[in-house]
Amino acid sequence: MAAIEYPSTASVPRRHHEAIMEAPRPSYAEKRADAEERTRAQTELEHIVRLYNLGKPIFPRSLLKDLHEQIGQGKEEVIIPDIDDKPQTYSLRAHELCTDFPIINYSSIQRLIHFDPRYPSLLIGSRCPVSIQYTPRPNYPSSTSEEIHSAFEHINTQWLKSETCSNLGRFFVKPRFLPKTITKIVAFGLGTLGKVEFGNLSVRSYAQHAAMLTMASALRKRNNDSEGRQDIQCFAQDPYYDEKDIEFLTSLGITVVNDPQGFLEIDEHTLVFSVCPNIPVRQIVADVRWPAAMIWNSLTSEEEMDGWRRWLPNGEVFLAGPMMTDPDSDRVCEMVRYYNEAQLSDPGDYFGDLTVYARKSSSLDKV
Ligand SMILES: C[S@@+](CC[C@H](N)C(=O)[O-])C[C@H]1O[C@@H](n2cnc3c(N)ncnc32)[C@H](O)[C@@H]1O
């Protein structure tokens, strides 16, 4: 087995002006401090990988529930345990001189253990899978309720006529692919219906909310046809929803929830719907609760995943990538083994590469 290899600093291309200026040579003391820092980072990396490989959840449901309760109590500070269960304190106070607002930051396992040997200190101390971060509010002109209404009407009509919509609908009719026990849809990261970059509306975000309604109505119809007659609740979580989004989505029967409530809504009767979110939704769901079904971005192929595998000198194996906002992990791959899967063909490009996962009935005794 090959030991972990980090990119060599020697392979970093030099810019032209650097090529002609001799860099000062590091002193013996600097070299020694560097080596010590690398050793500490390596020990830290091994520690996190070991905990993860032993099965420690990095996004435990109890942690998110406790954080949700602290936020609900209107506290100015919240306490979130790190990967070693040590409490860390974060401020939620809005700063007077700054328009940035606090959001929950979720670090995928890949991000937690990302280690660049040129900056080893960046790994040291990154023990917090869940933390609070400040981010600027997007500064786009706001949309009126009328604009949102008429854009939704127009895009929903296109969506309902699309081939992607028919392809999605097939999963909800006989022969039954999705479990019949679904009573709830929880969506993540579908995006705002207001203006985004360059003042445009995002057709994808409109179509994805329309798709959520299509799925809810197909599930309602199916439940009405059977004896259960359970209603279908719809929840959507995206921190960039504004008041106009909330007003409009509520009028459609979609309940907007604040982060992390969406994750707490997931149970064994839930269909999770997530499209290209900016957070590791799949890794969070794998730790929090396994739902009845998921419609989310397709997993990376096994071959590609193997290319990301690295070995530590102590024999631990871990995935060093892919580095993206919602990456797969060994735990996500293990979870989907308990689901039947089928790719959703999306010629309209409303979603990109999505797969439908339906819990195998034989696996219901798991988690
Ligand atoms: C790349 S955009 C994708 C938007 C849309 N789904 C699409 O496919 O075009 C990522 C979305 O994830 C959302 N997001 C970021 N943090 C989130 C969180 N904690 N919970 C849910 N969504 C989140 C962002 O606000 C943004 O709308």
Automatic annotation (TrEMBL):
Transmembrane residue ranges: none
Region (Disordered): 1-32
Stretch forming the signal peptide: none
InterPro entries: SRR1-like
Naturally occurring in which organism (per UniProt): Aspergillus brasiliensis (strain CBS 101740 / IMI 381727 / IBT 21946)
Domain SRR1-like: from-to ranges: 180-305
Protein name as annotated: SRR1-like domain-containing protein
A Pfam family per the record: SRR1
